[in-house]
């Protein structure tokens, strides 16, 4: 049950680190989406990019 919180926290920290550079901003956005999926996986659908 708590694994989702740790996954979300890891994705948030990674997103903050990636958002520092211009090249990393799209990857930071992807990590923010993954953090939301880690917290609320019910009803979420991962679509191909």
Give your account of this protein's structure:
With 49 residues, the protein is mainly alpha-helical. Helices cover 63% and strands 0% of the residues. The chain contains two helices and no strands. The longest helix has 16 residues, at 3-18. The chain crosses the membrane at residues 6-29. Residues 2-44 form the Inner membrane component domain. Keywords: Membrane, Transmembrane, Transmembrane helix. Pfam families: YccF (PF03733).
Order of helices and strands: HH
Share of residues in strands = under 5%
The rounded distance between the terminal residues' Cα atoms is 28 Å
Instruction: Report the C-alpha radius of gyration, rounded.
Output: 11 Å
How much helix, percentage-wise, in residues? 55-70%
How many beta-strand elements?
Answer: 0
User: How many distinct helices?
Assistant: 2
- The helix-and-strand class reads mainly alpha
Largest sheet geometry: none
Low-confidence segments, ≥5 residues, pLDDT <50?
none
**How much is the average pLDDT?**
87
**Large-scale geometry:** flat
Secondary-structure topology with pairs:
Layout: H1 3-18, H2 25-39
InterPro entries: Inner_membrane_protein, YccF
Keywords: Membrane, Transmembrane, Transmembrane helix
Transmembrane segments: 6-29
What keyword list fits this structure?
49 residues; mainly alpha; 63% helix; membrane; transmembrane
Give the gist of this structure.
Keywords: Membrane, Transmembrane, Transmembrane helix. Residues 2-44 form the Inner membrane component domain. This protein is mainly α and 49 residues long.
